[in-house]
């Protein structure tokens, strides 16, 4: 395949960025999107030009770092996959592909296509944990019965990889889907009950402090989420938040 790439280039957080055109050839359908960018970067390095900076680590849909806006969609045109799992067979010979970083005030651009998603880490630090007595009296987790439906829903919520596609897809740059997944994975389990009220209040407050927008129930986040995190988690978080607020 021969392709035209229009890629966002930005020197650093303070510089103004712009779209730059690149021509690329010899791309196979079986290549991943990141492998295609590797080919481009090898070409650029061979020509003495600066390679395009983009984030990646596991390249198998686990780490959530490969956050790219491709033709206006987070993680590109396929569903339930991350950018590293997107194959070039989704595109046609002669296509023009627009590649941009995830856009949100709370995700400032570091360089080119790489953004700072540490706001998500700070939301997690605010309450995404449980306190367990490990002084020798620890109770085996399996000794506490858990309703199968709750266990399945908690597991599904825990599959959120913190990629930020939900924020990039949302017209308000809301982080409700991410935060609600992180709240739900504890709210559904007995082990999460002790700190439930403090957790939801702290995580939602941190989410607001980071500058994410409000949820207006558009649902774009659920559609673009590579892990299929359900909007039901947002409803659950709202119930948890209301109940914690009423307790004072
Ligand atoms: S909810 Fe989905 S889209 Fe949002 S951070 Fe988690 S995995 Fe990514
Ligand atoms: S590089 Fe880890 S999810 Fe894509």
From TrEMBL:
SUPFAM superfamilies: 2Fe-2S ferredoxin-like (SSF54292), alpha-helical ferredoxin (SSF46548). Its cofactor is [3Fe-4S] cluster; [2Fe-2S] cluster. It comes from the Bacteria. Transmembrane segments: none annotated. PROSITE patterns: 2FE2S_FER_1, 4FE4S_FER_2. It holds the Pfam family Fer4_8. Residues 151-181 form the 4Fe-4S ferredoxin-type domain. GO terms for molecular function: 2 iron, 2 sulfur cluster binding; electron transfer activity. GO terms for biological process: aerobic respiration; respiratory electron transport chain. Belongs to the succinate dehydrogenase/fumarate reductase iron-sulfur protein family. This is Succinate dehydrogenase/fumarate reductase iron-sulfur subunit.
